Amino acid sequence: MLGSKANGKRVFESPFKCRMTVLIDMKQARSIYMERTIPNLPLLKRFIRALDEDEGIRIEGNRPDLANGGYVFVGFYRGSYCVNLCDRIRDEQSQKYTVGSNDKWFYFEEFTDLWKFLRPLIRKPLRAWLY
Known about the structure:
- The chain is mostly beta strands and 131 residues long.
- The protein has a nine-stranded antiparallel beta sheet with strand order 1-2-3-4-11-5-6-7-10. A two-stranded antiparallel sheet has the order 8-9.
- The longest helix has 9 residues.
């Protein structure tokens, strides 16, 4: 759907295979964020390997020690992968999930070590986004 309006913001979706949503605050006429859905594990691996320092990946986790399985964030900075695990909290007013506390940080030099750590943390079915 192109150009629909939601909560005072204009929503644009790309017609490409991976859905990309851009929310624009029409009052301030600026882009708030852009996300691309990652539909499967092979594409998730590809995007992780190709991360730039200004990009990140958000994955719904399955950790029993984190609220609602938690979120797993993956980034890349100065040649290393950074993983942040945190609670996934449901906001009762908006009925959407948001980032909570209980942060845990992990760092990896190599993709293979990162993937061994990540694979058991990923909720099935996969729900992940590139931002």
